[in-house]
Design a protein that fits this description.
Blueprint (H helix, E strand, L loop, with lengths): L1 E7 L3 H14 L4 E6 L3 E6 L5 H10 L3 E12 L1 H6 L8 H8 L4 H4 L7 E9 L10 H18 L4 E4 L19 H6 L8 E7 L3 E10 L2 H10 L11 H10 L7 E4 L6 H8 L3 E6 L2 H18 L5 E5 L5 H4 L4 E6 L13 H25 E16 L2 E4 L2 H5 L5 E2 L27 E3 L6 E9 L1
Helix pairs in contact: 1-9, 9-10, 10-11
This protein binds S-adenosylmethionine.
Length: 446
């Protein structure tokens, strides 16, 4: 039995769906037992070793950090010690200050020089009666004090408490992967500790691995061909690959490959990639990206990028495909919300294109294979308009695959209704505030 803490991507629901599918596809019995908007706690029946955790981190698009849970506090303990509107007495602080988990992270601190950091993940930003900043400062000070008392030669901590770079108002008291790498916080005796709050508990986990943001940034900036207008984010590409059940050495297809972002992510995960695009410039660009990646890695990559119309896939591709993942064209880029009629017409013609391509995919997809794709949701003046599933899958030989199955979720009742997960989902929104065309993720199966 292993209890794992995952720090989630910005779309927490999609990240959880991806995690659960990934775990299930690897034959592990994993259940979501608790979560917040920032993190998920997953109980896996099997023992999970360090290498498996590293594999998970490198494959998942929606995980920033993974650690093993080493201690749990009832939420009353931090609530008493770090209440938002009350100064705690010595008695209130007694329990949390004992830190019995310290011995698990540092069985012996004697004579050591230790660098560490406690990254705190609140339930949802604000509206929770704990002063998270005071908690983070207090816990770091306390751990430092205990380590010195236990004989450490030095103990220094790193604490991030500036506003979040992405959303100023958002509280961020977690260390960035860059800080963790720069200070070697994952090499013992150094450590990063995750303090994950849910509305019931405070979980303490020791980080095993974090997302390599510097490497991703380097690849994004150095690849020869990119297009701000059409490129899909590498993280979403990974999420789509996992939802489609793609595994290393599988043959995967992106029938709308554009600049080849998804193919690059698949190649990095040791998959054999086939990409198709109707636009010759995109095909050339995607080829140059894959060639660049192979050079950069110093490895031969298995890929084939074909110029063609995916409505004729079965005449372009003669081999069986294990998994399909893609972002299709999502319609025009609107400057202002379109009328309902205009949006409905766009959705109608996109449905026809998607259905024709799905029909073709179904003929080359292996039995039980899956397709993960994004679809547009257009915020017209009269409200959101999106694809009707019956019309999309009609005569394609594919059915809807439901994400977040209810047997994989045992979180009990969340006090905050904004965290409630409705199980067995056929669609998960991938919203960006203010955009007229938003996306949703769906998965189909043969
Ligand atoms: C949203 S973009 C894909 C972006 C890609 N994931 C990336 O990261 O660059 C959609 C792509 O579908 C291609 N496309 C449109 N209709 C097509 C068709 N019928 N067959 C193949 N490709 C098509 C477009 O040329 C465009 O490159």
């Amino acid at each position: 039995m292993t209890k794992l803490a995952f720090v989630l991507g910005s779309n927490w629901l999609l990240s959880i769906a991806e995690l659960l599918v990934y775990i299930q596809d690897r034959g592990l019995a994993g259940t979501l037992i608790d979560h917040s908007r920032h993190a998920a706690i997953i109980d896996v029946e099997q023992r999970i070793n360090r290498d498996q955790i590293i594999d998970m981190q490198s494959a998942l698009g929606g995980a920033y950090k993974i650690g093993k849970v080493i201690w749990e506090y009832d939420i009353d303990v931090p609530l008493k010690a770090y209440a938002a509107k009350r100064v705690a007495s010595k008695e209130d602080l007694k329990e949390i200050r004992k830190c019995p988990w310290l011995r698990i992270v540092w069985p012996s601190a004697k004579g050591k020089k230790i660098r560490f950091g406690i990254s705190t993940y609140p339930v949802i930003d604000g509206r929770f009666p704990i002063d998270f900043k005071r908690f983070a400062q207090g816990m770091n000070d306390q751990v430092k004090k205990l380590l010195i008392e236990n004989g450490a030669r030095r103990a220094d901590y790193f604490l991030y408490n500036k506003p979040d770079r992405r959303v100023e108002k958002r509280l961020n008291i977690a260390l960035w992967p860059k800080t963790i790498a720069r200070n070697a916080l994952l090499s013992p005796p150094n450590a990063e500790i995750l303090a994950v709050f849910s509305d019931r508990k405070l979980y303490i986990a020791r980080t095993n691995i974090v997302y390599d943001s510097m490497l991703q940034q380097y690849r994004d900036e150095s690849r020869p061909f990119t297009s701000a207008e059409i490129s899909t984010s590498p993280k979403i590409c990974r999420t789509l690959l996992n939802l489609a059940g793609a595994r290393p050495r599988d043959k995967i297809l992106d029938p709308f490959c554009g600049t080849g972002t998804l193919l690059m992510e698949a190649a990095l995960l040791d998959m054999k990639c086939i990409g198709v695009d109707i636009d010759g410039d995109q095909v050339q660009g995607a080829r140059s990206n894959l060639k660049w990646l192979a050079n950069d890695l110093g490895e031969k990559l298995d890929y084939n990028i074909i110029k063609g119309d995916s409505r004729n896939l079965s005449s372009l591709i003669k081999t069986q495909i294990d998994a399909v993942a893609f972002e299709p064209p999502l319609g025009p880029i609107y400057k202002n919300p379109p009328s309902m009629k205009e949006a409905a017409e766009t959705i109608r013609s996109l449905t026809v294109l998607y259905r024709e391509v799905l029909k073709e995919i179904s003929t080359i997809l292996r039995p039980d294979g899956r397709v993960a794709m994004t679809i547009p949701v257009i915020n017209s003046v009269g409200g959101p308009i999106s694809i009707e599933f019956d019309k999309l899958i009609e005569n394609t030989g594919l059915g809807l695959y439901r994400m977040l199955s209810d047997e994989s979720i045992k979180t009990g009742k969340n006090i905050d209704t904004r965290l409630k997960i409705r199980p067995n989902r056929e669609l998960i929104p991938e919203r960006k505030r203010g955009q007229i065309v938003q996306r949703a993720v769906i998965v189909l199966e043969k």
